[in-house]
Amino acid sequence: MATPKPAVAEKPPEVPPAPPATPVETPPRKTRWWLWLLLVALLIVGGIFGVPWVIRAYNTVSTDDAFVNSHATFVAPRVSGQVAAVLVEDNNRVRKGDLLVQLDKEPLQAQVNIAQAALSAADANLLVAQAQVRATVSQMRSLRFNLDHAIEDVDNQAALLHARVATLKSYQALYERSQKDYDRVVPLLTSGGISQEVVDQRKQQALADEARVEEALQNVYQIRVQLGLKAKPESGDLTEVPLDLNQVVSSVRQAQASLMQAAATVGVSDSFNKTPRQLVVDFYKRDPSGDIDRIYDKIVASAPGIKKADSERVEAQRNLDQALLNLKYCDVRSEIDGVVTRRSVNPGNNVVAGQSLMLVRSLTEIWVDANFKETQLGSLRIGQLVELEADMYGSKQHFKGRISGFTTGTGSTLSLLPPENATGNFVKVVQRLPVRIELIGYKPDETPLFPGLSVTPTVLLNEPMEGPDAGKMLQQLPSASAAKPAASPPAPSPAITGGTSAPPLAPKQ
Length: 509
Prior knowledge:
Layout: H1 33-59, E1 60-62, E2 66-75, E3 81-86, E4 93-94, E5 99-103, H2 106-191, H3 196-226, H4 245-248, H5 250-264, H6 276-284, H7 292-301, H8 304-328, E6 331-333, E7 338-341, E8 350-351, E9 358-373, E10 385-390, E11 398-406, E12 432-440, E13 455-460, H9 478-482, H10 494-497
Antiparallel strand pairs: 1-13, 2-9, 3-5, 3-8, 4-7, 5-6, 7-9, 9-12, 10-11, 10-13, 11-12
Helix pairs in contact: 2-3, 2-5, 2-8
Protein backbone atom coordinates (compact mmCIF):
# COMPACT_ATOMS: atom_id res chain seq x y z
CA MET A 1 0.00 0.00 0.00
CA ALA A 2 1.49 3.33 -1.03
CA THR A 3 2.14 6.02 1.57
CA PRO A 4 0.69 9.52 0.68
CA LYS A 5 3.15 12.34 0.40
CA PRO A 6 2.80 15.33 2.67
CA ALA A 7 1.37 18.52 1.20
CA VAL A 8 3.83 21.29 0.59
CA ALA A 9 2.68 24.84 1.68
CA GLU A 10 2.64 27.41 -0.98
CA LYS A 11 4.66 30.61 -0.52
CA PRO A 12 2.63 33.85 -0.23
CA PRO A 13 3.22 36.40 -2.93
CA GLU A 14 5.73 39.03 -2.05
CA VAL A 15 4.28 42.51 -1.25
CA PRO A 16 6.29 45.43 -2.50
CA PRO A 17 7.44 47.78 0.33
CA ALA A 18 5.33 50.90 1.04
CA PRO A 19 6.74 54.23 0.13
CA PRO A 20 8.05 56.34 3.08
CA ALA A 21 5.36 58.55 4.88
CA THR A 22 5.53 62.23 4.38
CA PRO A 23 5.53 64.12 7.76
CA VAL A 24 2.39 66.32 8.42
CA GLU A 25 2.84 69.66 10.25
CA THR A 26 0.62 70.04 13.46
CA PRO A 27 -0.80 73.56 14.19
CA PRO A 28 0.24 75.09 17.56
CA ARG A 29 -2.25 74.36 20.63
CA LYS A 30 -4.24 77.43 21.79
CA THR A 31 -4.48 78.18 25.61
CA ARG A 32 -8.06 77.54 27.03
CA TRP A 33 -8.20 80.57 29.34
CA TRP A 34 -11.94 80.48 29.71
CA LEU A 35 -11.73 77.19 31.62
CA TRP A 36 -9.52 78.78 34.21
CA LEU A 37 -11.90 81.72 34.42
CA LEU A 38 -14.84 79.36 35.04
CA LEU A 39 -12.90 77.49 37.72
CA VAL A 40 -12.08 80.72 39.53
CA ALA A 41 -15.71 81.83 39.34
CA LEU A 42 -16.86 78.51 40.81
CA LEU A 43 -14.41 78.85 43.65
CA ILE A 44 -15.63 82.37 44.39
CA VAL A 45 -19.29 81.33 44.32
CA GLY A 46 -18.50 78.31 46.49
CA GLY A 47 -16.72 80.53 48.97
CA ILE A 48 -19.60 83.01 49.08
CA PHE A 49 -22.41 80.46 49.49
CA GLY A 50 -20.71 77.30 50.67
CA VAL A 51 -18.69 78.66 53.55
CA PRO A 52 -21.73 80.29 55.28
CA TRP A 53 -23.67 77.08 54.74
CA VAL A 54 -20.94 75.04 56.38
CA ILE A 55 -20.65 77.54 59.23
CA ARG A 56 -24.45 77.53 59.70
CA ALA A 57 -24.46 73.73 59.65
CA TYR A 58 -21.98 73.63 62.54
CA ASN A 59 -23.79 76.36 64.53
CA THR A 60 -27.39 75.16 64.18
CA VAL A 61 -29.50 72.07 64.71
CA SER A 62 -32.57 71.44 62.59
CA THR A 63 -35.10 68.76 61.73
CA ASP A 64 -37.88 68.33 59.21
CA ASP A 65 -39.97 66.24 61.64
CA ALA A 66 -41.94 69.13 63.17
CA PHE A 67 -45.50 70.37 63.00
CA VAL A 68 -47.73 73.13 64.34
CA ASN A 69 -49.92 72.37 67.36
CA SER A 70 -52.48 74.33 69.35
CA HIS A 71 -55.03 74.02 72.13
CA ALA A 72 -58.35 72.47 71.21
CA THR A 73 -61.41 73.13 73.37
CA PHE A 74 -64.35 70.77 73.17
CA VAL A 75 -67.59 72.73 73.43
CA ALA A 76 -70.03 70.87 75.67
CA PRO A 77 -73.15 71.97 77.60
CA ARG A 78 -73.17 71.95 81.39
CA VAL A 79 -76.84 71.01 81.58
CA SER A 80 -79.07 68.65 79.66
CA GLY A 81 -81.79 69.93 77.39
CA GLN A 82 -83.09 70.44 73.87
CA VAL A 83 -81.13 72.57 71.43
CA ALA A 84 -83.06 75.69 70.46
CA ALA A 85 -80.52 77.32 68.13
CA VAL A 86 -77.01 76.82 66.75
CA LEU A 87 -75.41 80.14 65.88
CA VAL A 88 -72.12 79.10 64.23
CA GLU A 89 -70.91 76.93 61.39
CA ASP A 90 -67.67 75.11 60.75
CA ASN A 91 -64.67 77.40 60.07
CA ASN A 92 -66.39 80.39 61.71
CA ARG A 93 -63.98 82.45 63.77
CA VAL A 94 -65.24 83.22 67.27
CA ARG A 95 -64.12 85.25 70.26
CA LYS A 96 -64.11 84.21 73.89
CA GLY A 97 -67.64 84.61 75.26
CA ASP A 98 -69.43 84.41 71.90
CA LEU A 99 -72.73 82.51 71.94
CA LEU A 100 -72.42 79.22 70.07
CA VAL A 101 -75.44 77.09 71.04
CA GLN A 102 -78.64 77.94 72.90
CA LEU A 103 -80.76 75.39 74.79
CA ASP A 104 -84.45 75.60 75.62
CA LYS A 105 -84.77 77.68 78.80
CA GLU A 106 -88.39 77.01 79.81
CA PRO A 107 -87.80 73.88 81.97
CA LEU A 108 -84.93 75.52 83.82
CA GLN A 109 -86.88 78.76 84.22
CA ALA A 110 -89.56 76.70 86.02
CA GLN A 111 -86.88 75.35 88.34
CA VAL A 112 -85.78 78.92 89.05
CA ASN A 113 -89.36 79.88 89.96
CA ILE A 114 -89.66 76.88 92.31
CA ALA A 115 -86.36 77.76 93.99
CA GLN A 116 -87.45 81.39 94.34
CA ALA A 117 -90.68 80.31 96.04
CA ALA A 118 -88.72 78.04 98.40
CA LEU A 119 -86.44 80.96 99.26
CA SER A 120 -89.43 83.17 100.06
CA ALA A 121 -90.84 80.45 102.34
CA ALA A 122 -87.45 80.11 104.03
CA ASP A 123 -87.32 83.89 104.59
CA ALA A 124 -90.75 83.75 106.21
CA ASN A 125 -89.71 80.81 108.41
CA LEU A 126 -86.66 82.74 109.50
CA LEU A 127 -88.80 85.71 110.52
CA VAL A 128 -91.13 83.40 112.44
CA ALA A 129 -88.20 81.77 114.21
CA GLN A 130 -86.76 85.16 115.11
CA ALA A 131 -90.12 86.27 116.48
CA GLN A 132 -90.46 83.07 118.53
CA VAL A 133 -86.96 83.41 119.94
CA ARG A 134 -87.52 87.04 120.85
CA ALA A 135 -90.78 86.07 122.53
CA THR A 136 -88.93 83.39 124.49
CA VAL A 137 -86.27 85.93 125.46
CA SER A 138 -89.00 88.25 126.71
CA GLN A 139 -90.43 85.34 128.68
CA MET A 140 -86.97 84.74 130.13
CA ARG A 141 -86.86 88.34 131.30
CA SER A 142 -90.26 87.87 132.95
CA LEU A 143 -89.21 84.59 134.56
CA ARG A 144 -86.04 86.27 135.76
CA PHE A 145 -88.19 88.82 137.58
CA ASN A 146 -90.35 85.98 138.94
CA LEU A 147 -87.23 84.37 140.36
CA ASP A 148 -86.23 87.63 142.04
CA HIS A 149 -89.78 88.00 143.34
CA ALA A 150 -89.70 84.44 144.73
CA ILE A 151 -86.43 85.19 146.54
CA GLU A 152 -87.84 88.44 147.88
CA ASP A 153 -91.01 86.66 148.97
CA VAL A 154 -88.94 84.17 150.97
CA ASP A 155 -87.04 87.01 152.58
CA ASN A 156 -90.36 88.71 153.41
CA GLN A 157 -91.72 85.47 154.88
CA ALA A 158 -88.61 85.14 157.02
CA ALA A 159 -89.05 88.70 158.25
CA LEU A 160 -92.71 88.04 158.87
CA LEU A 161 -91.74 84.97 160.88
CA HIS A 162 -89.66 87.10 163.18
CA ALA A 163 -92.56 89.55 163.54
CA ARG A 164 -94.99 86.76 164.33
CA VAL A 165 -92.60 85.29 166.90
CA ALA A 166 -92.34 88.71 168.52
CA THR A 167 -96.13 88.98 168.58
CA LEU A 168 -96.28 85.51 170.09
CA LYS A 169 -93.89 86.54 172.82
CA SER A 170 -95.95 89.67 173.62
CA TYR A 171 -99.10 87.57 173.83
CA GLN A 172 -97.32 85.10 176.06
CA ALA A 173 -96.33 87.97 178.39
CA LEU A 174 -99.92 89.21 178.50
CA TYR A 175 -101.13 85.71 179.16
CA GLU A 176 -98.68 85.24 182.00
CA ARG A 177 -99.77 88.53 183.59
CA SER A 178 -103.48 87.76 183.28
CA GLN A 179 -102.93 84.28 184.68
CA LYS A 180 -101.08 85.72 187.68
CA ASP A 181 -103.86 88.27 188.19
CA TYR A 182 -106.38 85.46 188.20
CA ASP A 183 -104.30 83.38 190.56
CA ARG A 184 -104.13 86.31 193.01
CA VAL A 185 -107.87 86.96 193.13
CA VAL A 186 -108.97 83.35 193.64
CA PRO A 187 -107.94 83.22 197.40
CA LEU A 188 -109.62 86.57 198.02
CA LEU A 189 -112.94 85.17 196.88
CA THR A 190 -113.20 82.72 199.82
CA SER A 191 -112.34 85.46 202.36
CA GLY A 192 -114.95 87.78 200.89
CA GLY A 193 -112.39 90.35 199.97
CA ILE A 194 -113.46 90.39 196.29
CA SER A 195 -116.63 89.68 194.40
CA GLN A 196 -117.29 86.72 192.09
CA GLU A 197 -117.69 89.07 189.18
CA VAL A 198 -114.13 90.31 189.45
CA VAL A 199 -112.85 86.74 189.59
CA ASP A 200 -114.83 85.82 186.52
CA GLN A 201 -113.44 88.82 184.66
CA ARG A 202 -109.88 87.94 185.55
CA LYS A 203 -110.50 84.35 184.50
CA GLN A 204 -112.02 85.43 181.21
CA GLN A 205 -109.07 87.70 180.53
CA ALA A 206 -106.61 84.89 181.17
CA LEU A 207 -108.49 82.56 178.85
CA ALA A 208 -108.60 85.24 176.13
CA ASP A 209 -104.85 85.88 176.44
CA GLU A 210 -104.22 82.14 176.27
CA ALA A 211 -106.27 81.92 173.07
CA ARG A 212 -104.28 84.79 171.53
CA VAL A 213 -101.03 83.02 172.41
CA GLU A 214 -102.26 79.88 170.72
CA GLU A 215 -103.35 81.83 167.64
CA ALA A 216 -99.98 83.60 167.41
CA LEU A 217 -98.20 80.26 167.80
CA GLN A 218 -100.22 78.71 164.98
CA ASN A 219 -99.42 81.68 162.76
CA VAL A 220 -95.73 81.12 163.45
CA TYR A 221 -96.11 77.42 162.59
CA GLN A 222 -97.90 78.34 159.37
CA ILE A 223 -95.11 80.65 158.21
CA ARG A 224 -92.46 78.09 159.07
CA VAL A 225 -94.28 75.42 157.10
CA GLN A 226 -94.67 77.80 154.14
CA LEU A 227 -90.92 78.35 154.24
CA GLY A 228 -90.35 74.60 154.13
CA LEU A 229 -89.22 74.44 157.74
CA LYS A 230 -90.35 72.24 160.58
CA ALA A 231 -93.18 73.76 162.61
CA LYS A 232 -91.36 72.95 165.86
CA PRO A 233 -87.58 73.18 165.50
CA GLU A 234 -85.50 70.83 167.54
CA SER A 235 -83.68 73.73 169.16
CA GLY A 236 -86.99 75.25 170.24
CA ASP A 237 -86.08 78.60 168.63
CA LEU A 238 -89.01 79.47 166.40
CA THR A 239 -86.94 82.18 164.64
CA GLU A 240 -84.29 79.67 163.52
CA VAL A 241 -83.94 80.02 159.69
CA PRO A 242 -81.08 78.68 157.43
CA LEU A 243 -78.90 81.37 155.90
CA ASP A 244 -79.49 80.07 152.33
CA LEU A 245 -83.22 79.65 152.80
CA ASN A 246 -84.00 81.98 149.87
CA GLN A 247 -81.88 79.73 147.57
CA VAL A 248 -83.31 76.31 148.45
CA VAL A 249 -86.95 76.88 149.15
CA SER A 250 -89.29 75.11 146.72
CA SER A 251 -90.94 78.25 145.38
CA VAL A 252 -87.55 79.70 144.42
CA ARG A 253 -86.47 76.41 142.88
CA GLN A 254 -89.69 76.28 140.89
CA ALA A 255 -89.07 79.79 139.55
CA GLN A 256 -85.49 78.77 138.73
CA ALA A 257 -86.69 75.66 136.86
CA SER A 258 -89.20 77.70 134.84
CA LEU A 259 -86.45 80.13 133.87
CA MET A 260 -84.09 77.34 132.85
CA GLN A 261 -86.83 75.63 130.85
CA ALA A 262 -87.48 78.78 128.85
CA ALA A 263 -83.74 79.36 128.39
CA ALA A 264 -83.23 75.81 127.11
CA THR A 265 -85.53 76.48 124.14
CA VAL A 266 -83.10 79.18 122.91
CA GLY A 267 -79.98 77.10 123.51
CA VAL A 268 -79.02 78.34 126.97
CA SER A 269 -78.51 75.37 129.25
CA ASP A 270 -77.17 75.15 132.80
CA SER A 271 -76.99 72.78 135.74
CA PHE A 272 -79.85 72.43 138.21
CA ASN A 273 -77.26 71.94 140.96
CA LYS A 274 -76.51 75.65 140.85
CA THR A 275 -78.30 77.96 143.23
CA PRO A 276 -80.32 80.82 141.78
CA ARG A 277 -77.64 83.25 142.89
CA GLN A 278 -74.94 81.25 141.07
CA LEU A 279 -77.18 80.96 138.03
CA VAL A 280 -77.67 84.72 137.83
CA VAL A 281 -73.98 85.45 138.39
CA ASP A 282 -72.91 83.02 135.65
CA PHE A 283 -75.54 84.46 133.32
CA TYR A 284 -74.09 87.96 133.65
CA LYS A 285 -70.62 86.60 132.96
CA ARG A 286 -71.68 85.97 129.35
CA ASP A 287 -70.69 89.56 128.62
CA PRO A 288 -67.48 91.14 129.97
CA SER A 289 -69.29 94.32 130.92
CA GLY A 290 -72.41 92.53 132.16
CA ASP A 291 -74.69 94.29 129.64
CA ILE A 292 -77.94 92.35 129.82
CA ASP A 293 -79.20 93.63 126.46
CA ARG A 294 -76.04 92.50 124.71
CA ILE A 295 -76.32 89.11 126.41
CA TYR A 296 -79.85 88.65 125.13
CA ASP A 297 -78.82 89.76 121.63
CA LYS A 298 -76.15 87.05 121.60
CA ILE A 299 -78.72 84.52 122.77
CA VAL A 300 -81.04 85.52 119.95
CA ALA A 301 -78.26 85.26 117.37
CA SER A 302 -77.19 81.78 118.51
CA ALA A 303 -80.65 80.32 119.15
CA PRO A 304 -81.10 76.84 117.59
CA GLY A 305 -84.41 77.77 116.01
CA ILE A 306 -82.91 80.78 114.26
CA LYS A 307 -79.84 78.80 113.19
CA LYS A 308 -82.01 76.07 111.72
CA ALA A 309 -84.22 78.56 109.90
CA ASP A 310 -81.15 80.45 108.71
CA SER A 311 -79.51 77.26 107.41
CA GLU A 312 -82.72 76.38 105.56
CA ARG A 313 -82.70 79.83 104.04
CA VAL A 314 -79.04 79.45 103.01
CA GLU A 315 -79.87 76.10 101.44
CA ALA A 316 -82.79 77.65 99.57
CA GLN A 317 -80.52 80.47 98.40
CA ARG A 318 -77.95 77.94 97.16
CA ASN A 319 -80.67 76.05 95.31
CA LEU A 320 -81.79 79.29 93.69
CA ASP A 321 -78.22 80.16 92.75
CA GLN A 322 -77.77 76.71 91.21
CA ALA A 323 -81.04 77.06 89.31
CA LEU A 324 -79.94 80.45 88.01
CA LEU A 325 -76.60 78.97 87.00
CA ASN A 326 -78.34 76.14 85.16
CA LEU A 327 -80.49 78.72 83.40
CA LYS A 328 -77.37 80.65 82.48
CA TYR A 329 -75.74 77.47 81.21
CA CYS A 330 -78.45 77.23 78.55
CA ASP A 331 -76.25 79.67 76.62
CA VAL A 332 -73.22 77.66 75.52
CA ARG A 333 -70.40 80.11 74.87
CA SER A 334 -66.87 79.85 73.58
CA GLU A 335 -64.18 79.65 76.22
CA ILE A 336 -61.31 80.73 73.94
CA ASP A 337 -60.62 82.70 70.79
CA GLY A 338 -60.39 80.41 67.81
CA VAL A 339 -62.08 78.74 64.86
CA VAL A 340 -65.06 76.38 65.01
CA THR A 341 -64.63 72.92 63.59
CA ARG A 342 -66.24 69.48 63.79
CA ARG A 343 -69.73 70.80 64.54
CA SER A 344 -72.02 67.88 65.37
CA VAL A 345 -75.19 69.48 66.72
CA ASN A 346 -78.37 70.82 65.14
CA PRO A 347 -81.52 72.52 66.46
CA GLY A 348 -83.92 70.06 68.01
CA ASN A 349 -81.26 67.65 69.24
CA ASN A 350 -81.51 66.49 72.84
CA VAL A 351 -78.11 66.80 74.46
CA VAL A 352 -76.77 65.82 77.87
CA ALA A 353 -74.25 67.54 80.09
CA GLY A 354 -70.72 66.95 78.87
CA GLN A 355 -71.68 65.91 75.34
CA SER A 356 -69.26 67.24 72.71
CA LEU A 357 -71.05 69.60 70.34
CA MET A 358 -68.14 71.09 68.39
CA LEU A 359 -64.47 71.93 68.65
CA VAL A 360 -62.80 75.34 68.87
CA ARG A 361 -59.17 75.49 67.77
CA SER A 362 -57.07 78.35 69.07
CA LEU A 363 -55.21 80.55 66.59
CA THR A 364 -53.31 82.51 69.20
CA GLU A 365 -52.04 79.81 71.55
CA ILE A 366 -49.85 78.20 68.89
CA TRP A 367 -46.61 76.28 69.34
CA VAL A 368 -44.43 73.86 67.38
CA ASP A 369 -43.67 70.28 68.39
CA ALA A 370 -40.29 69.37 66.87
CA ASN A 371 -39.09 65.77 67.07
CA PHE A 372 -35.30 65.99 67.29
CA LYS A 373 -33.07 62.95 67.15
CA GLU A 374 -31.51 61.88 70.42
CA THR A 375 -28.08 62.61 68.91
CA GLN A 376 -29.09 66.24 68.50
CA LEU A 377 -30.42 66.82 72.04
CA GLY A 378 -27.06 67.32 73.71
CA SER A 379 -26.81 70.85 72.30
CA LEU A 380 -30.39 71.92 73.01
CA ARG A 381 -31.46 73.94 76.05
CA ILE A 382 -34.52 75.89 77.15
CA GLY A 383 -34.44 79.49 75.93
CA GLN A 384 -32.49 78.90 72.68
CA LEU A 385 -33.80 80.90 69.73
CA VAL A 386 -35.29 79.05 66.78
CA GLU A 387 -35.95 80.04 63.16
CA LEU A 388 -39.06 78.40 61.73
CA GLU A 389 -39.92 77.86 58.09
CA ALA A 390 -43.43 76.63 57.34
CA ASP A 391 -44.06 74.62 54.20
CA MET A 392 -47.30 76.55 53.76
CA TYR A 393 -45.44 79.84 53.18
CA GLY A 394 -42.09 78.51 51.99
CA SER A 395 -38.88 80.46 52.33
CA LYS A 396 -40.58 83.80 51.78
CA GLN A 397 -41.94 83.82 55.33
CA HIS A 398 -39.96 82.97 58.47
CA PHE A 399 -41.15 82.77 62.05
CA LYS A 400 -39.20 83.14 65.28
CA GLY A 401 -39.47 81.08 68.42
CA ARG A 402 -37.69 79.74 71.51
CA ILE A 403 -37.40 76.32 73.08
CA SER A 404 -39.73 76.18 76.10
CA GLY A 405 -39.42 72.59 77.23
CA PHE A 406 -38.67 68.94 76.53
CA THR A 407 -41.08 66.04 76.69
CA THR A 408 -40.04 63.53 79.37
CA GLY A 409 -40.07 60.56 77.02
CA THR A 410 -39.54 59.68 73.40
CA GLY A 411 -42.38 59.13 71.00
CA SER A 412 -42.03 55.36 71.14
CA THR A 413 -42.31 55.17 74.96
CA LEU A 414 -45.36 57.42 74.94
CA SER A 415 -47.13 55.40 72.25
CA LEU A 416 -50.08 53.11 72.87
CA LEU A 417 -47.85 50.02 72.57
CA PRO A 418 -44.36 50.91 73.85
CA PRO A 419 -41.50 48.69 72.66
CA GLU A 420 -40.43 45.70 74.75
CA ASN A 421 -36.66 45.60 74.29
CA ALA A 422 -36.25 42.94 76.99
CA THR A 423 -37.57 40.21 74.65
CA GLY A 424 -34.20 39.86 72.94
CA ASN A 425 -35.37 41.03 69.53
CA PHE A 426 -33.64 44.37 69.94
CA VAL A 427 -32.63 46.54 67.04
CA LYS A 428 -31.22 49.90 67.97
CA VAL A 429 -33.13 52.73 66.32
CA VAL A 430 -32.31 56.38 66.78
CA GLN A 431 -35.13 57.77 68.90
CA ARG A 432 -36.77 61.17 68.60
CA LEU A 433 -37.81 63.37 71.53
CA PRO A 434 -40.59 65.97 71.14
CA VAL A 435 -39.29 69.47 71.88
CA ARG A 436 -41.76 72.29 72.38
CA ILE A 437 -41.06 75.60 70.65
CA GLU A 438 -43.13 78.67 71.48
CA LEU A 439 -43.52 81.40 68.90
CA ILE A 440 -42.19 84.93 69.36
CA GLY A 441 -43.95 87.87 67.72
CA TYR A 442 -46.58 85.64 66.13
CA LYS A 443 -49.35 87.56 64.29
CA PRO A 444 -52.26 85.23 63.57
CA ASP A 445 -54.25 87.88 61.72
CA GLU A 446 -51.49 88.42 59.14
CA THR A 447 -49.76 85.04 58.79
CA PRO A 448 -51.83 82.38 60.59
CA LEU A 449 -50.48 78.92 61.26
CA PHE A 450 -52.90 76.02 61.41
CA PRO A 451 -52.44 72.93 63.57
CA GLY A 452 -50.78 70.07 61.75
CA LEU A 453 -48.78 72.15 59.27
CA SER A 454 -45.23 70.95 58.62
CA VAL A 455 -42.46 73.20 59.88
CA THR A 456 -38.69 73.09 59.62
CA PRO A 457 -37.15 74.51 62.83
CA THR A 458 -33.53 75.59 63.00
CA VAL A 459 -32.09 76.08 66.49
CA LEU A 460 -29.48 78.85 66.73
CA LEU A 461 -26.96 77.42 69.18
CA ASN A 462 -24.75 80.46 69.58
CA GLU A 463 -27.44 83.09 70.00
CA PRO A 464 -28.15 84.44 73.53
CA MET A 465 -30.91 82.51 75.29
CA GLU A 466 -34.14 84.22 76.35
CA GLY A 467 -37.04 83.74 78.74
CA PRO A 468 -37.50 81.84 82.01
CA ASP A 469 -35.34 78.82 82.83
CA ALA A 470 -32.92 79.77 80.05
CA GLY A 471 -30.01 77.38 79.68
CA LYS A 472 -31.71 74.49 81.55
CA MET A 473 -33.09 71.14 80.52
CA LEU A 474 -35.97 71.10 83.05
CA GLN A 475 -38.30 73.85 84.15
CA GLN A 476 -38.26 74.87 87.80
CA LEU A 477 -40.90 73.75 90.27
CA PRO A 478 -43.77 76.25 90.81
CA SER A 479 -42.87 76.74 94.50
CA ALA A 480 -39.25 77.50 93.60
CA SER A 481 -40.06 79.74 90.68
CA ALA A 482 -42.63 81.71 92.70
CA ALA A 483 -39.87 83.07 94.93
CA LYS A 484 -37.80 84.17 91.93
CA PRO A 485 -38.45 86.74 89.18
CA ALA A 486 -40.85 85.65 86.49
CA ALA A 487 -38.31 86.08 83.71
CA SER A 488 -34.62 85.30 83.90
CA PRO A 489 -32.20 87.65 82.15
CA PRO A 490 -30.68 86.40 78.88
CA ALA A 491 -27.52 84.37 79.29
CA PRO A 492 -24.41 86.35 78.35
CA SER A 493 -22.64 85.37 75.17
CA PRO A 494 -19.24 83.64 75.28
CA ALA A 495 -17.64 86.69 73.74
CA ILE A 496 -18.58 88.76 76.80
CA THR A 497 -17.88 86.25 79.57
CA GLY A 498 -14.90 84.60 77.96
CA GLY A 499 -16.44 81.19 78.69
CA THR A 500 -19.04 78.86 77.22
CA SER A 501 -22.72 79.49 77.78
CA ALA A 502 -23.91 76.51 75.73
CA PRO A 503 -22.82 72.94 75.24
CA PRO A 504 -20.31 72.08 72.50
CA LEU A 505 -21.72 72.55 69.05
CA ALA A 506 -22.92 69.55 67.15
CA PRO A 507 -22.94 69.28 63.38
CA LYS A 508 -26.25 69.45 61.59
CA GLN A 509 -27.78 66.05 61.13
